[in-house]
Please model this.
Amino acid sequence: MEKYAPFHVKKYCVIDNNDEVYRKFVNEYEDNYHFVYKMKCSCYNDKFEVYKDDNPTVIIRCTNCNKEITVYDLKYYPSAIKLEDKLEMEQVICCNQNIFNVYPIYEYGDEFEYDTEFDENDITWCIIFIREIKNNSIKKLIDDETA
Model:
């Protein structure tokens, strides 16, 4: 099965069958319309600081090279309602920790399979989970419909 992700993030979306949390999310969420990934930086690091605002926008920063990657931002998605206000990004802290693995799940509408002009940026929903590295706790960071 071909897997899809928005263009702005696709090169950082990996399939990691060696990661038990990734496999759990695949078993729970993945189907013909939901695509599960683990985030990995171009430097091959998979540990990130996470920043979020109330739009919601989610940006991650690689702990190895400091590269910033936008995982979710409504401005990229054609069907999303665009918000004019720029909100302040806040660092996510969970269990007194701030370093996470990041697992986005992108959903596409059921008509995308038949759309001859399919746009991979045209997601309908996004769920992002984070896993705190030291104690392995998992938290749902966002669960957002784009339109």
The chain has one domain: 10-145. The beta strands are 13-14, 34-36, 38-39, 48-52, 58-62, 68-72, 90-91, 100-107, 125-132, 138-145. Residues 10-145 form one domain. The mean pLDDT is 91.
